[in-house]
Design goal:
heterodimer; A: about 775 residues; alpha+beta; Aldehyde Oxidoreductase, domain 3; Aldehyde Oxidoreductase, domain 4; 3 domains; 20 helices; 28 strands; B: about 180 residues; Ubiquitin-like (UB roll); DNA polymerase, domain 1; 2 domains; 5-stranded mixed sheet; 5 helices
Chain lengths: ~775, ~180
Amino acid sequence: MSTGIGARVQRKEDKRYITGKGKYTDDVRNESQAYAAFVRSPHAHANVNGIDTSAAMAMDGVIDVLNGQQLTGDGIGNIICGWAITSKDGSPMNMGAWSALATSKVRYVGDAVAVVIAETQALARIAAEAVEVDYEVLPAVAASDKALAGGAALIHDNAPGNLIYDWEIGDGAATDAALAGAAHVTELAVTNNRLSPNAMEPRAAVATFDECDDHYTLYTTSQNPHVARLVLSAFYQVAPENKLRVIAPDVGGGFGSKIFIYPEEITCLWASMKTNRSVKWTSDRSEAFITDAHGRDHITTAKMGFDAAGKIVGFKVDTIANFGAYMSLFSSSVPTYLYATLLSGQYNIENIHCNVRAAYTNTVPVDAYRGAGRPEACFLVERMMETAAREMGKDPTDLRRANFVQEFPHQTPVIMAYDAGDFGANLDQAMAAADVAGFAARKAESAGRGKLRGLGYSSYIEACGIAPSAAVGSLGAGVGLWESAEVRVNPVGTIEVLTGSHSHGQGHETTFAQIVAERFDLPLENVSIVHGDTDKVQFGMGTYGSRSGAVGMSAIVKAMDKVEAKVRKIAAHVLEASEDDIVIEGGQVKVAGTDKAMGWHEVGLSAYTAHNLPPDMEPGLKEGAFYDPANFTFPAGTYICEVEVDPETGVTDIVQFTASDDFGTIINPNIVEGQVHGGIAQGIGQAMLEQVVYDDDAQLVTGSYMDYAMPRASDVPSFSVHHASTTCPNNPLGMKGCGEAGAIGSPPAVINAITDAIGSNDLAMPATPQAVWNAIQAAK
Amino acid sequence: MTPKDLPHLPPSEPAFAGFRGTAAPCLTLTVNGREHSVVADPTDRLSLVLRDCLGLAGLKQGCLEGECGACTVLVDGEPVNSCLILVFQVQGRSITTVEGLEAPDGTLSPLQKAFVEHGAVQCGYCTPGMVMAAQGLLNRNPSPDEREIRHALGGNLCRCTGFQGIVDAILSQAAQ
């Protein structure tokens, strides 16, 4: 059976997971393990006038109680935001200070003010309750529009009016003129609901300071251990990079929330030095709700203008983004370069203008969550297209087709240059698979049972593999967005690939091995993937933004190119042939057209014995590569959702969900389909179930699974997943990325379907039965 | 709240139970067909004792409130959230954890194989609980249909797979 590109290979990593032998951070326990518990603010906004730790310190089993004054006194730096955004008036963004342990003021419920280190987790938690903090409660604000309105509580002194930045993209005057001349203008106000990422594995950290070697080791739930080490070292000054090893072992899902470096990791490292003990912290679920960065939370108004033929002439967007109490690592880029740059959707739009104001509020910091800006853009564009079609009496697919970008490359007015795609092919395929032709009959059948049936479309586009590094640097990014790989051929011919990508559910140990096994025509089990440990792997950027295929695997290809070149040289030398005649197949390195051959393993052995190498060739057979893409990639597709609504109760069943995606080259269809399934389920969660709720005092109402509705098995259908691919011209394998498409494309399909069913367009996410029922009643 | 007001909290590390000033008793648990003597507070969570005293760390503690199902084990063949069971409650009962599914020689059970074959695993964190919930379903209903499977998984959250691979895996094991 083929194990190469396109083969449905079973995952190599699954045996350890299915037998319970995966090793996650919470499964790590060191000798004399000590435990951390954080003292967290119960108030959304308060001055801290004093912290009395004496009662806690006196308790049995308490090793130490540490606070923010000590932390800053030891030179631990403030938490940073890694992407600088410049306001339209030229001023820099207003970033307020964020200390891992708050010193004089707390700004959200959950803000940490102290940490207890104790012999057991339970003792640490009991002692944390005994820390007396003198809070002077201040007025608080949770909603971004209220935070920006005059008179709201000021959260950071250096951000007047709670405004972080006021940014724009596109030509405002030209867009206004286009809208003024439009035959039809559709206006829409949408809220993109605030979500909690809820990776099933809560965040955790185990930090150990080795006094003898002056060296730290941190096990942590990270999507990007090297970036974590860099930031911990260069910005927080915990330790120099060469004295800090970061290991992200098995990680139980991330969805963006484990990109960022949080106060807890910093504090555990510092506390391990202060106490000279290995310090472990594992978040409980309640802590996760109040500390893991939230996602989305946009308030948007928009106008789209059309000419008489239905061609889009202009798109004007005004968005407020809620950043929470502090600027998390990539927060600033999400509603700007990851959102506004995708507002052209799959459409040829000459004039686009978007204004974004980012606001501080007294809530959990908000940052990238599966899709990160692109779901917000897609939801707006696709709700707009459906709404406009209804207003103009056009078929929603006809309106989309009339505006599809047809020629590539295509430069949008909002930075992005689409490199390849066939949007019509995916719409056609999705419509055929969803049997759109039979919808009218199904709708009539539903009506016969007193049910309302609706069909909703979403033709999404997104951008993955943010690049090239020089371009993102010019836009304010503090990091490059390349990826690294090292391919090590051992003396016996087996191969280790050291990748800077990190797998936390994506199946890299399988797909990455597939491309290597195919390239050198070796058994899959001869290839091992090494990742997630800064002591083992060269610097890499990690996994997020659907980048590990298009960027991470491209780096492996570049390294394999170098390995192959050396293999050819060695074999040509040993077999006394021309390099051009060397063929690698079937575990052998052969001279084409002859019976001269040597085993693949013999080439490896030759490289390491170095008894008979070409003159001036270095021994050994391992090569590395750093790959910096020339452009983003642009996965795109069409999703069609069909729902049946009970008008008496508002209960909505998704009776069919069809996806047709263009992901470029697909390495392992099983894994890609799994990514799509999971992404769609998260999108359905956003559309129908999930909502982080704060009350007027900025207290979190949805702080447990009893209050925050996660999609469960009975909430989602089985999905019909298809592909109509074009090849990405900008990377060696032609890949585009598949990790986020489902979460990006599905929410508007669901809402378009429900609003189609109930005959009312006024429906916000999440479309709970109550919300749907209210919309039905309001439309009567 | 002061420490004195707190309800009796289970310790996270039974090895340190002595800090509470009382000697923990010895309990007998039958896990995966073997009897084990463990020194633990009778009111410790079963999930904690299995992980920390017996080293059966396959189950995960994803929420500690009985809502995510990552800690699911079988007690007398029925799936339970081991985070909500106190260890004294299961003395004399038969407990099966994910470590008890495979054959002694390491051969995966048919259900475990089906999980691998149908793409039911991504990050793997929910998997030990999910497969035990599925085994519990098959124990009492050898031929569930899709609706019954989705209902039976109601207590087990998965954020990665969208449940489709899991449902397909269990369906493949339903008796014809």
